[in-house]
Amino acid sequence: MNMERSPKLMLLVQAAMIAALYVVFTFLANAMGIASQVIQVRFSEALTILPYFTPAAIPGLFIGCLLANILTGCAIPDIVFGSLATLIGAVFTYKLRKNKWLAPVPPILSNVIVVPFVLLYAYGVRPLWFSFITIAIGEVISCGLLGMLLLFTLNKYRSVLFPAEF
Questions:
Q1: Which of UniProt's keywords are assigned here (predicted)?
Q2: 34 Cβ contact partners less than 8 Å away, ≥ 6 residues apart
Q3: N or C: which end of the chain has fewer CB within 10 A?
């Protein structure tokens, strides 16, 4: 089957690859001990810029985050609300795709708004105001810095990696 003739198959394959990469990168950050510290740096969060390139990234990021949170033993509120924060960030990144500089903003904001409350209610991390600061720092590093590096790198190969127009 020719992928160019089957955009639905292309989207499914892209979503599955993005989900798999998200899980692998989360495990890598966990193995390095930087995914669940005071300042959380998940390499997988750099992938949150992918809705700039393809709508397949929306379900891919959500499923990848959901699986990563389950497989790394997160608390139920983290699994649910952390994954929803990623979904919200992905949807708004896709909606703002006309401007590449806005790509990391939705996932940064959604995680900064949601994750501190998850840390408080699921894990008892206090004080709340400090979690807002540390999550913001981690998200700016993950989404803003690493994500934008990824965006500029992938943009060079955009027509090869993301050939279909949607």
A1: Membrane, Transmembrane, Transmembrane helix
A2: 40, 41, 42
A3: N
Q: SS3 helix, strand, coil % of the chain, rounded to 5?
A: 75, 0, 25
Encoded tokens for 4: 């160019």
Residues whose CB falls within 8 Å of the CB of residue 98, separated by 6 or more in sequence, listed in order: none
- Tell me which residue of 125, 101, 6, 103 sits closest to 57, measured CA to CA: 103
| Closest of 40, 36, 122 to residue 77, by C-alpha | 122
Tokens of 10: 């292309």
Structural domains in the chain (count): 1
State the DSSP code for 36: S
Distance CA 39, CA 21 (A): 22
Whether residue 25 lies inside any domain: the answer is: yes
From the list 120, 92, 7, 102, the residue with the least C-alpha distance to 56 is: 7
Both tokens assigned to 83: 């994954």
Q: Is residue 166 part of a domain?
A: no
- CATH number for the domain that contains residue 54: 1.10.1760
Specify if 130 maps to a domain.
yes
